[in-house]
């Protein structure tokens, strides 16, 4: 009778130890995955912060006369009065439809 109680205790204790080891191993794997995700997110935050700083500088510079003139020339195709506009006709025209005409 004593031997049977000792064997049951050993089996239960061994099962508990195996369960604990497996659970701890799974937790370590999960912690490793979360740490890598956290590292990726931290890098994304840093890149977004850098982009935000660049945009803030652009906003500050947007109200300068030089920048307003540059945007008017590049984005709107405007010219100052008295300026002559030259169009380069040696470049081939781009085909907007993508076919041969």
Provide keyphrases for this structure:
101 residues, 2 helices, 0% strand
Q: How many β-strands, per DSSP? A: 0
Strand content: under 5%
Structural class: mainly alpha
Distance between the termini: 100 Å
H-E string: HH
Number of H/I helices? 2
Major pleated sheet: none
Fraction of residues in helix: over 70%
Low-confidence stretches: none
Please give the domain count: 1
Shape: rod-shaped
Mean pLDDT: 85
Radius of gyration: 35 Å
Please characterize this protein's 3D structure:
The chain is an all-alpha fold and 101 residues long. It has one domain. 72% of the residues lie in helices and 0% in strands. The chain contains 2 helices and no strands. It has helices spanning 2-62, 65-76. It is rod-shaped. It starts with a helix and ends in a 25-residue tail after the last helix.
Map the helices and strands:
Blueprint: H1 2-62, H2 65-76
Brief overview, please?
The protein has helices at 2-62, 65-76. The chain is an all-alpha fold.
């Amino acid at each position: 009778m004593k031997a049977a109680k000792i064997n049951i205790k050993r089996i239960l204790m061994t099962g508990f130890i195996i369960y604990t080891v497996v659970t701890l191993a799974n937790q370590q794997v999960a912690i490793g995955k979360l740490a890598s995700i956290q590292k990726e997110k931290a890098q994304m935050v840093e890149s977004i912060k850098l982009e935000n700083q660049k945009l803030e500088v652009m906003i500050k510079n947007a109200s300068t006369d030089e920048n307003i003139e540059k945007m008017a020339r590049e984005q709107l195709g405007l010219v100052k009065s008295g300026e002559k506009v030259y169009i380069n006709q040696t470049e081939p025209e781009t085909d907007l439809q993508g076919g041969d005409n």
